[in-house]
């Protein structure tokens, strides 16, 4: 088994409702093992199994961000 990957995003979350939406969206994705949201810092850290592509995470978050009017970008 390979080590988990960590990907960090800047997400324009303004409240716990935003954070919960982000967790719900990412939590439905296969291979996501942990999600940590920080609303004040507008940061989301996602741990995934090795096969998960960061671009797939970004696509899912960007779709929500567009609908919610929130900025989403990958940091690392």
Automatic annotation (TrEMBL):
It comes from the Eukaryota. GO terms for biological process: copper ion transport. One of its GO terms (cellular component) is cytosol. The keyword Transport applies. Residues 4-73 form the HMA domain. Coiled coil: none annotated. Keywords: Chaperone, Copper, Copper transport, Ion transport, Metal-binding, Transport. GO terms for molecular function: copper chaperone activity; metal ion binding. InterPro entries: Copper_transport_ATOX1-like, HMA_dom, HMA_dom_sf. Belongs to the ATX1 family. This is HMA domain-containing protein.
